[in-house]
Amino acid sequence: MDTATTALLTDHYELTMLEAALRSGAAHRRSVFEVFARRLPDGRRYGVTAGTGRLLDAIENFRFDDETLTFLDEAGVVGRATLDWLAGYRFTGNVWGYAEGECWFPGSPLVVVEGSFAEAVVLETLILSILNHDAAVAAAASRMTSAAAGRPCIEMGSRRTHEEAAVAAARAAYISGFASTSNLRAGQRYGIPTRGTSAHAFTLLHDDEREAFAAQVAALGADTTLLVDTYDVATAVRTAVEVAGHELGAVRLDSGDLLLLAHRVRAQLDELGAAKTRIVVTSDLDEYAIASLRAAPVDAYGVGTQLVTGSGHPTASLVYKLVARAMSDEPDAPLVPVAKKSPGKPSHGGRKSAVRRYDADGVAEAEVLRPFRADAEPVPGERELLVPLVLGGKIVGREPLSAARARHERSREELPLSATQLSRGEPVLPTIYE
Amino acid sequence: MDTATTALLTDHYELTMLEAALRSGAAHRRSVFEVFARRLPDGRRYGVTAGTGRLLDAIENFRFDDETLTFLDEAGVVGRATLDWLAGYRFTGNVWGYAEGECWFPGSPLVVVEGSFAEAVVLETLILSILNHDAAVAAAASRMTSAAAGRPCIEMGSRRTHEEAAVAAARAAYISGFASTSNLRAGQRYGIPTRGTSAHAFTLLHDDEREAFAAQVAALGADTTLLVDTYDVATAVRTAVEVAGHELGAVRLDSGDLLLLAHRVRAQLDELGAAKTRIVVTSDLDEYAIASLRAAPVDAYGVGTQLVTGSGHPTASLVYKLVARAMSDEPDAPLVPVAKKSPGKPSHGGRKSAVRRYDADGVAEAEVLRPFRADAEPVPGERELLVPLVLGGKIVGREPLSAARARHERSREELPLSATQLSRGEPVLPTIYE
């Protein structure tokens, strides 16, 4: 039924627009589309670019094979001439974008696609799906790692989101500083460290808690994490140390008043001589809960639901808009800016360049968008944000995931201090259209 | 890198639990896991079962092939004995569940998995990912189709969610009564009708609106839907009817005060003699916006973001809990109920049967859960809710998607009238543990 091609992860109207534009001839006009968000989610201070690496793979696999064409034909989506055009589809244009991990603000052109209208319009849905999802998770993840202030965060939200979205979410979280994930496919596909030990079911399976702990330690070693809240926490902690000894790696708390429990369990562990045993907490954590545990003796946070659902904002509101197109059907016709005029949705036509402007101390102070000029010179105190991702149809923007992760850390550090306040506020940088 | 197997769409800890249980011998204890939600999302009246069909495919493809085993080995997730066990993995147990489309309530055992602990525990993450996502979308979709009161709803949220989640979302929406989707893969994979015509980019591509409309009508026929809010709506409607004639299929409004605009555009269309031309509205609609347009001359609703993000509740909070397991390692050991004792998370141990109880008028009045008895007789005025999905490892629960769609309509109709009130309230049926 299915194929590996990404070509049908697309809205029907991309292909009917293509059909109509092929017929009118306008399909071949050189066009520029920009991906941007009109606003950040309410109260958020910055966005995070994520999904770029996945997007490059998806563009490469955007091919209309026989099975795909047969479906489009039989379903009557488009006619013969369009099917023939699609059979030869290969994106030959250019894509620039904010490098993965980079912070962004309202209006930032996260991705710029230049090509014929035909070849660029059909990528809309796929580009937005990938970036809207991954950026939403990465933005939430960044607030969480920032709130965790150096303590490791473990991504464990797979069960709360679509099974493939889970893999992408683990990737996005890693970019924003998560230390590891529970998702094994993310480990296989992206090389992200995976972690996991046991659930309540494992304790309940055995005749008592001691037997369960002994079974786990026998299999996984004393340096494992024992889950201590199936019955009574204090009893479980005592049993855990008796079974595993002072080398017990960690105990996990998954319910109750974590602030109170963490202090009690820490004191109990120390008293039992297990001073090196860590405390891992999990239990519907979000960035606020993580922050509230800052003064508690917690060594790691496991985060699930709130991470994979973007902590209240499961999508990033990115849109894909035609901002310029050739003035006519002539091959070398110059580009003209275009923009929808409807009320309530401001648009800025024309291809833009994007730079981040810094103050004398190297702190970012503005996102500056200006009309693109090929011959623009770099300006001191500004950093160019758009990097080439695809040139002449060739993917040039691939990089290791670790590069995106390192970039996000740098990009967040450059922002004004209020960027990492959790309280609701305005975007931490103003967007200036010059 | 990847394979078609679903085996790694799983949390790391499922496999470490397996490893430890294989070593302790407890892995072979017969076990019963139930999938249920402790509560509905705040204010919601009912849940909708969705994802079952996808789940059956996923269970069938849950296989540890060489590539998968090599990854697990090299990453050090589990040791040799466990790898050997996984190489032969095939689920041989039983699965019962609420039939797809059925409404559910807090505690309803949506899925019951019976098998050895080993074979059942490893399915946890995958089962929850699929059901949590699909049920969240289906629940939102059901409120929307109910608010639309018979007018067709078109799913067009692909761009706002992960690219594969989008396909599953289209499927879930269709179960809950959506008429069609924009997602072409959902059309190919599930046979859901797909719809789409054009976006603002198509108008902006052309030299003016008239040229764009003419190009679209030339390619797609007069019975197409023209998007009339790129510049000025009244001008666009006039141009649309001039270009397409009285046979114009529909106009689409994607911004502005839809209530006001729909009335104005309807009047204008009628005045222009295009009395049969329909009005389609799209623009961040949710169930409340749909309901508020009930008195407006709107013919169809296109719904995107709010649908695929569960209208505020992007995940269904379903959990997978061990509720019973064999008393000992003996092959015929009887089952004993088990449940976690932590505060704040009530659990009801033991395998349960689930029936819906009706009043004399055939209106549902309660969700009744009672300890499972193989010899239980049907009770008049009650309907058994658990149907067999997998028996002895064999998939027996496959059905056409249309069956799930028809079932949801019936299941919703049987509920008390207040089920489809949009205002926040309690679950419309009480859950009674007998």
TrEMBL record, chains A, B:
It catalyses: 5-phospho-alpha-D-ribose 1-diphosphate + nicotinate + ATP + H2O = nicotinate beta-D-ribonucleotide + ADP + phosphate + diphosphate. Signal peptide: none annotated. InterPro entries: Aldolase_TIM, N/Namide_PRibTrfase, NAPRTase_N, Nic_PRibTrfase-Fam, Nic_PRibTrfase_pncB, Nicotinate_pribotase-like_C. Pathway: Cofactor biosynthesis; NAD(+) biosynthesis; nicotinate D-ribonucleotide from nicotinate: step 1/1. Residues 153-322 form the Nicotinate/nicotinamide phosphoribosyltransferase domain. GO terms for cellular component: cytosol. It is an enzyme of class 6 (ligase). Pfam families: NAPRTase, NAPRTase_N. Residues 335-357 are annotated as: Disordered. Residues 8-132 form the Nicotinate phosphoribosyltransferase N-terminal domain. Its EC number is 6.3.4.21. Keywords: Glycosyltransferase, Ligase, Phosphoprotein, Pyridine nucleotide biosynthesis, Transferase. Gene3D superfamilies: Aldolase class I, nicotinate phosphoribosyltransferase. GO terms for biological process: NAD+ biosynthetic process via the salvage pathway. GO terms for molecular function: nicotinamide phosphoribosyltransferase activity; nicotinate phosphoribosyltransferase activity. Transiently phosphorylated on a His residue during the reaction cycle. Phosphorylation strongly increases the affinity for substrates and increases the rate of nicotinate D-ribonucleotide production. Dephosphorylation regenerates the low-affinity form of the enzyme, leading to product release. Belongs to the NAPRTase family. Catalyzes the first step in the biosynthesis of NAD from nicotinic acid, the ATP-dependent synthesis of beta-nicotinate D-ribonucleotide from nicotinate and 5-phospho-D-ribose 1-phosphate. This is Nicotinate phosphoribosyltransferase.
